[in-house]
Amino acid sequence: MAPLAHKLPIIRVAEPESSDELASVVRDGFHTNTAIYPLGGQTSLDYGLPARREGLGVSLSRLRRVIDYPARDMTITVEAGISMQALAETLAAEQQRLPVDAPQGEHATIGGVMATNFNGPRRMGQGTFRDYVIGVRAVDGTGMAFKGGGRVVKNVAGYDFPKLLTGSLGTLAVITQVTLKVKPIPEKSSFIAIALGSNDQAEPLLASLIYSKTSPTAIELLGGPEWHALSGELESKSTEYPIVLLVAFEGTSVETDWQLACLAEEWRTLGLRHPTLISDDRASQLWRHLTEFPAQSGSPLVLQATVAPSAVTSWLAAVLAIDPQCSFQCHAGNGVIVVRFSEFPESGLSRTLIGQLQPAANAGHGHVVILSNAQGGEMTHQSVWGGLAPFWLMGEVKRKFDPRGILNPGRFVYQGM
Q1: Which residue range forms the structural domain that includes residue 152?
Q2: When you count CB atoms within 10 A of the terminal residue's CB, does the N or C end of the chain come out lower?
Q3: pLDDT tens figures, 104-163
Q4: Please, which residues bridge with residue 142 across strands?
């Protein structure tokens, strides 16, 4: 059995060697009404509601080939079981990349990242995973193989299956093959950073970036013990945990250097005299830290909020009132906030989420979901998915693709499926 499959009620694990064999396994599950749990790198098994129904694990570990890579077309087709690291190494040989930051890339698979629609700090300047998927092959809940999109960027025929399956948590189909558009690796990647004394100081700086002449790749607002080493590198050598504002730029050396200098000058006009520039190897290390933050072990509870960018600091204030020692990472330009609690909330998970943090997110036109709950208790539909209501249309789509509800049953937003 795969190393983490014990987190699911799996009786045994099948490891099909082809998409046809995988389709046969799912078809048998459909006829016997057996639950099917797709398994990629198993890095996100804590995400979603706990599975209650015993069933069969279907590992895609043997489906990891590169099917087609016309590098000059800047597209690549791979099987869903290939790891993000292996994909990155293949692309790097042609000086290309998929600019999606997924943690634990040595284990996380392209199919799993697509199913969870996980996106990291580069999402502001480079877009989300959904923006890069142009073709997909998959097997639905009846065992029928289907495909959507194609191997060229300009393809607009029929339903948009690639975008529909992205973020569906394996509940509509088992993804077997993905075609992606890719981008060149930039010549230079650098950060400009400054330490702030409080959350209140961050709001006007974030607002000023709206009018900046620069085009950041990422805007990160960081705080808490996890970022103490970074804050110690900056001009403010506080023994506390100051909040760090980090802005990233990527591109040619000329354009990156110009944007760094431009933003430094804009900050000087606001009274910020000593920003720190981070480049070269230290920038690469920092990108890795930013990418891995949501998946680091040791926190009893990890939440992700998605709110309007203007509501980032107000939602953070609500979190800090509950746990002043938490560590957080905000993709501030997008309004996505990941919080790693230092201890489990004293008032309990449901009361904290439903009574405090979800209403605060709703006020910011957003919602909160649980990424990880080490204790495993109080994992209800409302606490896990918050404002992600199971709209009737989503339920209808689920029934079309998986009429018996055998794919990852009970784990996503559809209640009772």
Answers
A1: 1-185+388-417
A2: N
A3: 999 999 999 999 999 999 999 999 999 999 999 999 999 999 999 876 544 444 558 899
A4: none
